[in-house]
Amino acid sequence: MRKPYYFLLVLSVLTLFTAYRFADTGYQVGDTASDFKLKNVNGQMVSLKDQKEAKGFIVTFTCNTCPYAKLYEDRLIQLHQKYAPKGYPVIAINPNDATASPGDSFAEMQQRAKSKKFPFVYLHDESQEIAKRYGATRTPHLYILTRNGQDLKVSYIGAIDDNSGDPEKVQKRYAEAALDNLLSGKAVPQPTTKAIGCTIKWRNNS
Amino acid sequence: MKYSASMFARRILLFCFLLVGLALNKPAAAQTRQVPLVKLAHLQKYLNSTSDTTYVINFWATWCKPCIEELPNFEAVQKQYAGQPVHVVLVSMDFAKDLEKKVIPFVTRRQLKSTAFLLDEPDQNAWIDTVDPSWSGAIPATLLVNNRRKQRIFLEKPLTLAQLQEHLTTKFSHNP
């Protein structure tokens, strides 16, 4: 009777430890990203391993409500249209808690995907587990994953470009540069970038 | 004599009108706050200051709900530490094009008294790390820094007044 109890205790401590580690740091470039199964706006469950033809993914934590995320919607569509045929589709994930941010409910997500005619999947990270595991902190927050055998390697983390406010004034297309390099088998010269964004609206905001 | 008396009365009247006019005008003039548009060098003056002052540098934007909710806490801290070397600096992350139509009206309406400016540096990747390497770019974010005392705390989350006060009293030796 005692042995399983200790085993459970050790297991839960370990689980807690890893959960804290993920919550604290999340993925770094070079890490192996884990798969997930999240509900798309069309009601279907989506996971990365199902998409066998993809060379990788442009996993983007975004939402309906953040002005910065909205400013990037059209650019995200363009990114998908340009890179999905080359093997890198956009996987948009909304991690915001609908109680903290009612405009990010699943119904609102469906509405937004419809009105903007998203050509990519728009997934609901209802438990916020995936955002935590990835270490996403803001919207938009981009993770480019590259398939490496069975694994998915994190190849780029950061911003889409260097001017959220004005697409006309963009000078550095960070995400496109990363993708172009990955597609030609080269190393990504600037694998992490930063940008101002909206804090993810966590459940029971602490 | 008569002429000059009426002249005098007229002048008095004119003076009174002027006074009334000034009195009416003054609150309106005081209400419209100036929020300068600045470059990184301006922010760096605070980041790199070597005076024995604790700078409470808050990054916010008019479109950021949790930022707006915590702004009164920064105003309260600035008021509480009035006359002491604690200096609240509100750095707006709004777009430069929104300065006149959003930021200035907001700062004016909320009657914000703390130092405020709009940082016009669109390539955020180029400067976020200079504020703090641990900053992912999410706002609200706040840096408390006193370079003279080699004390700094960076917090990428909204802060309550109690949390702000606690940081200032326990981590920075300022006692109100």
UniProtKB/TrEMBL annotation, chain A:
<dbReference type="Pfam" id="PF00578">
    <property type="entry name" value="AhpC-TSA"/>
</dbReference>
<feature type="signal peptide">
    <location>
        <begin position="1"/>
        <end position="23"/>
    </location>
</feature>
<dbReference type="InterPro" id="IPR000866">
    <property type="entry name" value="AhpC/TSA"/>
</dbReference>
<keyword id="KW-0732">Signal</keyword>
<dbReference type="InterPro" id="IPR013766">
    <property type="entry name" value="Thioredoxin_domain"/>
</dbReference>
<feature type="domain" description="Thioredoxin">
    <location>
        <begin position="27"/>
        <end position="180"/>
    </location>
</feature>
<protein>
    <submittedName>
        <fullName>Thioredoxin family protein</fullName>
    </submittedName>
</protein>
<dbReference type="InterPro" id="IPR047262">
    <property type="entry name" value="PRX-like1"/>
</dbReference>
<dbReference type="GO" id="GO:0016491">
    <property type="term" value="F:oxidoreductase activity"/>
</dbReference>
<dbReference type="InterPro" id="IPR036249">
    <property type="entry name" value="Thioredoxin-like_sf"/>
</dbReference>
<dbReference type="GO" id="GO:0016209">
    <property type="term" value="F:antioxidant activity"/>
</dbReference>
